[in-house]
Specification:
Structural class: alpha+beta
CATH architecture of the largest domain: 3-Layer(aba) Sandwich
Radius of gyration: 20 Å
Strand order of the largest sheet: 5-7-6-8-9
CATH topology of the largest domain: Glutaredoxin
Number of domains: 2
Distance between the termini: 47 Å
Helix content: 25-40%
Mean pLDDT: 88
Shape: globular
CATH class of the largest domain: Alpha Beta
Strand content: 15-25%
Order of helices and strands: HHEEEEHEEHEHHHEEH
Length: about 230
């Protein structure tokens, strides 16, 4: 079972969509895999194979064989159906994120939702590239992957000028400075909320962006620049 889950987890990406499935099919799945929680169960293009959306992502259930299948469904035309569904599910999750809980930076035409870490070199590269472009409204969620990063996030969220502190952190201005400890309960709550949003999306690394509804995983600078310089609606 451990080996099965090791394979399954490789293909997981968090997300869920509501769907009213067949009660008999659902009961069959629950009976065979009682330890696997799921949020959606629906038919695929392959007869007898059903898509199972869990908190970690997509797996498949072969109802007649009563077994789980991990992997991607790819058509003869080369279309990766599983990849498409992952993106659809992920974007559905993103739409549910309350943006008023993010650090809002700027008021430009392009909308950027980002998950970032102030000590991540790739996050800083993306930050520098976007600073040069401008013309965007950024909703920043912090997803620190180390204690040192978490300390900088606390500093940012405790600051009177959060945007200024954010820019200082990602420009490297805070790297050799002593940061006063911040133990405000509201900051702890906000940091935990930001982390939970990242977990719901299945993030294991940073940076991660949704730019005008398009997913950019990692510091893909050419793609970021293209999306932010393309007129909206094109």
């Amino acid at each position: 079972m451990k080996t099965l889950w090791a394979v399954v987890l490789f293909f997981f990406l968090v997300g869920a969509v509501a769907w009213g499935g067949d009660s008999t099919l659902e009961q069959s799945f629950r009976n065979n895999f009682p330890d696997v929680s799921f949020e959606a169960l629906k038919p695929t293009v392959i007869k007898g194979l059903y898509e199972v959306v869990t908190e970690r992502g997509i797996i498949y259930y072969a109802s007649e064989a009563e077994c789980l299948v991990a992997g991607d469904i790819i058509t003869k035309q080369g279309i990766n159906i599983t990849q498409q569904r992952r993106r659809e599910i992920l974007l559905a999750r993103v739409k549910a994120i309350p943006l008023d809980k993010a650090l809002k930076v700027g008021s430009g035409r392009h909308t950027v939702i980002e998950f970032t870490d102030p000590n991540c070199a790739y996050c800083r590269r993306a930050f520098q590239a976007m600073e040069k472009i401008g013309d965007m409204t950024r909703y920043v969620f912090f997803y620190p992957l180390s204690e040192a990063s978490a300390d900088k996030v606390k500093h940012i969220l405790c600051a009177d000028d959060r945007i200024g502190a954010y820019k200082d952190a990602f420009s490297g201005e805070l790297d050799n400075k002593y940061l006063d400890p911040c133990e405000k309960e509201e900051v702890k709550t906000m940091m935990e909320f930001h982390r939970e949003q990242g977990k719901k999306l299945g993030l294991e690394g940073t940076p991660f962006f949704i730019i005008d509804g398009k997913i950019v995983a990692g510091a893909d600078i050419p793609l970021i620049e293209k999306l932010l310089t393309t007129p909206l609606g094109k």
